[in-house]
Amino acid sequence: MAQSLTELTVSPASCVGGAKVKLGVRLDKPAPAGGATVMVTSSVVATFASVTLIVPAGKSTVSTYVTSSPVASNIKVSLKAAIGASSKTGSVTVLAPSVSTLKLAALSVEPGKTVTGTATLNAVAPAVGLSVRLSSDSAYASVPSKVVVPSGSRSATFTVTAKSPPSNTTVGITTGTTNGSTTAELTVLSFALSHSSPWAKFHGNAASTGLSASRTARGNVRWTLPRFMPVQSNLVIGPDGVLYYAAATPPVYETIYATNPDGSTRWTYYVAHEIQSSPALADDGTLYFGVADGSLLALNSSNGTKKWSLKLTYALYYSSPTIGPDGTIYIGSPDKNLYAVNPNGTKKWSFAAKGTAESAPALAPDGTIYFGTEDGWLHALTPAGKQKWTIDIGCNGISSPIVGPDGVVYIGSEDAYLFAINPDGSKKWLFQVGMQIIDTPGLGPDGSLYVVSVDNYLYAVSPNGKFRWMFLLGADYSSPAIAADGTIIVGSNPLFVTDPGRVWAFRPDGSIAWTVPLIYDNFCTSPAIGADGTVYISTSYGILYAIN
To answer: What pLDDT is stored for residue 502 in this prediction?
Structure first.
């Protein structure tokens, strides 16, 4: 007697186009010698092929896998398995791809600038491509109505264009297909703070957050460059990836270097005075250094020629210049003044504080200038140099303030507190660490704060001032730099002289992403992050590391 089909199984009942589906059949009795042939036909062969199954002799079941084809819209395919006059039916729904991830190249954007978005599908697009819907929930960030993922590809990019909002505005950018949508948030700033450079000044940007728009390196040493003497100023990085910094070179006291991304030298400029101040790079290509003789030096970054030098005071040591959106340069001094200098090299104004002003100024979205003084006060000035308010934060060293997108100011104190100050000068919260804070905190993309204390621990603090985690680094440390994906980069020196210094990379949860030993050496500067994610740091023996 001929066999009859008792079952046709289809697993899973639905799949995204391009995935495999398991088909199985069951007979009412074992197949005879030579096996039994079962035909499984498809109602849409182009989407899901028909197949022939051979049930082996003596067996009553058999299964196989069929690979579906990519589709632009969901298609329900009817299946019929038959052997002789006996048949069973089933179906499988082949789904169009959905957007699995939406990534924005930056977490914040200034008015008038753009951010690239990447929509990635959970499967390849069909032969006709796949149209992905785009939308923004705010007029302050516009996107095209759609983007098409090409045939055989899984992703496509699009551009988000920002307009100027009255205040910092969080915008939801949404991508979607017939099978769902994915949203990512972007903060549109009300005030231009950053520059065209990926790392334009000490701690990256005018707000001094240490937050990069680039994703992190993987922890591989790309190259090392010996300068043989300490690089005392932190590095800045131009739009073309060129590094700018100063290093001691006796008998000439200091050399300013421009180093190409491959480690070769572009130009040098010699200065007969010490430079510990980190440079700042303006959008017009002017490079500014504070010099120990009290002058502010302006160079052409393209060729290293001098533009001008302005004598401001008797010395400029630790304060690093910050550049405003109109090109004004702000720099503090041991003579207790904060100076504002026009881009043409003329003095604009000065503000006299009561303590030395050697922290790097930070700028807020509304143009407010913040700086700390060593007598323990945080000052807030208008762009015209008038005091808005001042607040006592206890004994302060050279920790520089940073400003979040919402205008909240964060600064460390030698009284072992991290302060969060509202834009009106009131205290938002304070967080106590083990010992003094003398380095500048870093701000993560989720609003978390990262700060290192003299107790050698790196602390992670939530946006509301609560403890998240801590990690013992080693003796001495740098101000942390934060990649766009939240990775925290920090340098530390060893607790024991037999150990090397290290560059550490931590995930936002406190786990170690990677670490690079600085063989027989200690770090000297805080890390800087390039547009491609490369991390640059220099050591006390004058070795510059490029880590990608």
So the answer is: 84
167 and 313 belong to one structural domain? no
Listed as ranges, residues in the chain with pLDDT below 70 are 1, 167-168, 190-195, 228, 251-252, 395-398, 475-477, 495-499, 519-524
What gap in Å lies between CA 188 and CA 170, rounded to an integer? 6
Would you state the pLDDT for residue 106? 74
Instruction: Tell me, yes or no, whether 91 and 103 share the same domain.
Output: no
Same domain, 182 and 83: no
CB atoms within 10 A of CB 448: 17
Q: Does the predicted TM-score (pTM) go above 0.90? A: no
Which residues are within 8 A (CB) of 345 and not within 5 positions of it... i.e. 6 or more apart?
296, 298, 307, 308, 309, 310
What pLDDT sits at residue 71?
A: 94
> Which domain range does residue 155 map to?
99-188
61-99 b/e (C-beta count within 10 Å ≥ 16 → b): bbeeebebbbbbeebebebbbbbeeebbebbbebbbbbb
How does 238-273 read in b/e, with b if 16+ C-beta sit within 10 Å? beebbbbbbbbbeeebbbbbbbebeeeebbebebee
- Same domain, residue pair 19 and 69: yes
Pairing mode, strands 322-323 and 306-311: unpaired
**495, 512 contact by CB (below 8 A):** no
CATH number for the domain spanning 33: value is 2.60.40.10
- Number of domains making up the chain: 3
Beta bridge partners of residue 322, listed in sequence order: 330
User: What pLDDT sits at residue 237?
Assistant: 95
How far, in Å, are 147, 175, 195 from residue 116 at the CA level? 12, 13, 17
pLDDT of residue 191: 58
